[in-house]
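User: Can you recover a sequence for this backbone? Please restate the input before giving your answer.

Assistant: Of course. Working from this structure:
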């Protein structure tokens, strides 16, 4: 079990989002989207352990409206849509190291998962050990590669992605999971050594699909608004 207060919380929020323009500070149920993630982090750890990583003055200002002191600005080179999560996390870690901030692991909280709770983060931290590369939140996959996920073969026809395609009920196929984007608990040593996709030991923390909406498109936003209204 990892003490939530010992983690470094990184909340990435670049200014150039395209699917939903300015989504990180767009009002959701009357509150800027980024506030949801900041509130979760602040309920788990002191402000010193929280880094909002942004290249955008307005986002930094809106984040500060929560009372969190945002004393870090992401380099412009990491502000474009080609910058990967690993580079953003490493830069935030370097900043924490320069300030003498100790941390046992890095918790990445993307603002696009506002239904994530503090208990979800605690659940991931409970599964984390120094021998783990990453604990990541997942949800039941919308498409199962043994049942209803297909690839186009050399013959141009559809073939089931895995297995022989003989499962006639989804319930009989092996369980399949997908990252839901809500929580990543990352081993600092591992991310300095290799990309996230190369991690050999990734442990899943299962979240229900109804709390696993990742805001990427205007339709996602409409669905989220209806959920929060109810």
């Amino acid at each position: 079990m990892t003490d939530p207060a010992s983690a470094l919380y990184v909340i990435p929020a670049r200014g150039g989002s395209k699917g939903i323009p300015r989504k990180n500070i767009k009002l959701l149920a009357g509150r800027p989207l980024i506030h949801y993630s900041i509130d979760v982090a602040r309920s788990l750890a002191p402000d010193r352990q929280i880094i909002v990583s942004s290249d955008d003055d307005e986002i930094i200002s809106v984040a500060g409206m929560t009372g969190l002191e945002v004393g870090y600005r992401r380099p412009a080179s990491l502000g474009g849509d080609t910058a990967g999560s690993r580079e953003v996390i490493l830069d935030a870690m370097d900043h924490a190291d320069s300030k003498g901030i100790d941390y046992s692991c890095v918790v990445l909280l993307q603002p696009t998962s506002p239904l994530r709770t503090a208990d979800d983060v605690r659940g991931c931290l409970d599964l984390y050990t120094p021998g783990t590369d990453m604990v990541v939140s997942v949800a039941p996959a919308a498409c199962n590669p043994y049942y209803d996920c297909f690839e186009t073969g050399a013959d141009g026809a559809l073939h089931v992605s895995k297995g022989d395609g003989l499962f006639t009920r989804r319930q009989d196929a092996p369980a399949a999971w997908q990252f839901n984007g809500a929580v990543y608990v990352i081993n600092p040593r591992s991310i300095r050594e290799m990309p996230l996709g190369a991690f050999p030991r990734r442990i899943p923390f299962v979240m229900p699909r109804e709390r696993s909406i990742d805001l990427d498109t205007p339709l996602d936003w409409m669905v989220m608004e209806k959920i929060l209204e109810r």
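That completes the design. DSSP finds six helices and ten strands in the chain.
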